[in-house]
Amino acid sequence: MTPRVVVDTASPVPPWQQLTEQLSHLIGAGTLAAGSKLPPIRQLARDLGLAPGTVARSYRELESAGWVTTAGTKGTVVAHRVPADPWVMLEQAAAQYADTARRLGYDADTAAAAVKAVWG
């Protein structure tokens, strides 16, 4: 995989979620094209300094969201029909943001205020 992903293990966002968000962004942006093969779980875990279970969870999340498919010996590949509905993508991003805000101890009003502050 040519595009670089970086996982910050000191971040309050779990590594599996960081990886999932970055890969879904690369796929959604077309940087990882349909049919592109993702690295094997063990290889990517080794490259990123993560546990294989962390990468496996990210791949499962991507598969359940429709970004990738996994086919035994063929490995994990970018789906040919990735989620394209902008509203679905916005909802997914909002759900991830809400999870992060909750983990950091913020309520919905504070999280919404943070979005408004950066919206400009």
Automatic annotation (TrEMBL):
<feature type="domain" description="HTH gntR-type">
    <location>
        <begin position="13"/>
        <end position="81"/>
    </location>
</feature>
<keyword id="KW-0805">Transcription regulation</keyword>
<dbReference type="Pfam" id="PF00392">
    <property type="entry name" value="GntR"/>
</dbReference>
<keyword id="KW-0238">DNA-binding</keyword>
<dbReference type="InterPro" id="IPR036390">
    <property type="entry name" value="WH_DNA-bd_sf"/>
</dbReference>
<dbReference type="GO" id="GO:0003677">
    <property type="term" value="F:DNA binding"/>
</dbReference>
<keyword id="KW-0804">Transcription</keyword>
<dbReference type="InterPro" id="IPR000524">
    <property type="entry name" value="Tscrpt_reg_HTH_GntR"/>
</dbReference>
<dbReference type="InterPro" id="IPR036388">
    <property type="entry name" value="WH-like_DNA-bd_sf"/>
</dbReference>
<protein>
    <submittedName>
        <fullName>DNA-binding transcriptional regulator YhcF (GntR family)</fullName>
    </submittedName>
</protein>
<dbReference type="GO" id="GO:0003700">
    <property type="term" value="F:DNA-binding transcription factor activity"/>
</dbReference>
